[in-house]
Each structure stands twice: as C-alpha cells, then as structure tokens.
Amino acid sequence: MRFPSIFTCCLLAVSLLMTPAETQAETAKTRILMLTQSKGYTHGSVKRDKQKLAPAEIAMIQLGKQSGLFSVDCTQDAAADFTKENLQNYDMVMFYTTGMLPIKEADMQYFLNDWLKQKGHGFIGFHSATDTYKTYKPYWDMIGGSFNGHPWNSNNTVTITVHNTDHPAMKPFGKEFQFKDEIYQYKNWQPEKVHVLMSLNMEKCNPKKPYQVPVAWAKEWGQGKVFVNNLGHNPQTWTNPAFQKSVIGAIKWIRGDAPAAVPVNPELSKQEEAKAAAATKKAESK
C-alpha cells in the first residue's frame, strides 16, 4: 500500500505513543485524500514551492487538526495514489484539479460507481474541480457541470445569494454575502440532478449572459454525497473564516453529523435564469 504524503507516515509514528482513548479518537476521524494535481492551468492555491505544500493543502491540514474531525493526505500524483487499493484508506476525496488526470479507467469507474456510492463516503470539489475531465461524461454526470469560462475574475468582488441557509455548509455565509474570488460559468450544467445551494446575484454582478451562475451545490450519489464549491481560486480564500466553516459544514454533512436534505431544485434554477435574463436585458439597455 502506498501513502501519498509524509503526513500519514508521521501519524503512524505518533500513533505508537498514543493512549487507547487517543487511538480510538484518532480512528474516528474522517480520512480525506486531497488531490491537487493540475493537467491544465495550475492555480496559485495548489502550486507547491520547492516541494512544500500549497496554500490550499496547508489550510486543509491545519483545519483538520484544529477541528479534530479529519485528517488529510495531499497528493499531486493521481496515477500512483488515486487507485482502487488506496481508496480503501479513505472516507472522502477532495479535488482541486484541472485537465485529464492520469487515473486509470478501471480506478475511475470504481470510484464513481462503487466507492463514492457507499454510505459515509463523499466527494468535495473545489473551484477548478469542474475544469477537470471536461470531455469525460461519467465525471461531469457526478460533479454536475463543466467549466465554461470565468467572466468574473479573481479581482472581482461578487454578491452571492444563499438559497438554503439551513445547510451546514451554507450557514456561515448567511442569506447574502460579498466575496472576492474568481467565479465560473458552466456548460453540461444539470439543474435537474443537483440541489443548488448558492448562486451569483445577477442583479448585482454585472451579468454577462442571461443564465444562472451557480456557486455551490450538493447531491446524493447512491448512499454517498457530493458537494461542490466554485470558491477557492484566490489563496486568501483558504484562510477566510466563513469559507473554512463552510468546509467543516460540508464534511459534517457528508459524515452524517449534520443531516440536511438536498432534493433536486431545478425550479430554483429556472427562477434564477429568469432573473439573470432580466438583469442582462437591463444592463444592455443602459
């Protein structure tokens, strides 16, 4: 069995010094495999400097330690670490990735059709996880959509409306908030298969196209769960308290600690599209 980072080795060494109670608490932690490999554009949030960990990786490892809920192994070697054998060591997978990753077809099929559908398992996709496997339908069937440009770049401050303030991953944001980050628009978008959690408020975001721009969504996948959040382009996002609390909320939701229903809500997307069309028409008439 191959471990993707030195952190797991360190945990094994520390475990030898633990009391039985400490060992039991450590075993109860959710084990997360965080893949940050780029086969396209490499974002600053996942760019390593001379073999050091990237900002997003550091943030997730620290958040796991601070919360006591989870441990994280970070890898940028999908071919070696994203395998059927290695997935047995984890409860959740996080992607902050781009492009066509070097994952064997059999391993990807196992992940999508078996591992991820198991109770207690989950997938969390950050930012460019939707800019991954854009021509591979089984993947975007799972994740919900594919990157199709970012009219709102990393220097833009956008206004985001939260549609489900009761979801544990959304509570930290309130009903509406402003955030400085790069926002994607999507193709292969499947509103009939997801529960949209928050979207751009197109009336306040200089609309570019007359359609909804979802920012986060969730869905059931068999007995497993999927959570996707567009935010995360800027390294500063990873130290933002509300964003970090949102990540904790998503993990608790997947673990089952914070239950929340995520029924598909395509009618909401239709309403948001109507608002976007009206906002676009108004902007064009000026």
Task: Describe what is shown at a glance.
The protein has 9 helices and 11 strands.
CATH homology group: Class I glutamine amidotransferase (GATase) domain
- SS strand fraction: 15-25%
Shape: globular
Let me know the average pLDDT.
91
Description:
By secondary structure, the protein is of the alpha/beta class. The chain has a single domain, classed as Rossmann fold (3-Layer(aba) Sandwich), CATH 3.40.50.880. 31% of the residues lie in helices and 20% in strands. The chain has nine helices and eleven strands. It has helices at residues 6-15, 20-28, 55-67, 78-81, 84-87, 105-113, 137-143, 241-255, 266-284, and strands spanning 30-35, 70-75, 92-95, 122-126, 146-147, 157-162, 176-180, 186-187, 195-200, 214-221, 224-229. It has a nine-stranded mixed β-sheet with strand order 2-1-3-4-11-10-9-6-7, with helices on both faces. It is globular.
What are the salient characteristics of this protein?
9-stranded mixed beta sheet, globular, Rossmann fold, alpha/beta, 286 residues, disordered N terminus
List the helices and strands and how they pair.
Elements: H1 6-15, H2 20-28, E1 30-35, H3 55-67, E2 70-75, H4 78-81, H5 84-87, E3 92-95, H6 105-113, E4 122-126, H7 137-143, E5 146-147, E6 157-162, E7 176-180, E8 186-187, E9 195-200, E10 214-221, E11 224-229, H8 241-255, H9 266-284
Parallel strand pairs: 1-2, 1-3, 3-4, 4-11
Antiparallel strand pairs: 5-8, 6-7, 6-9, 9-10, 10-11
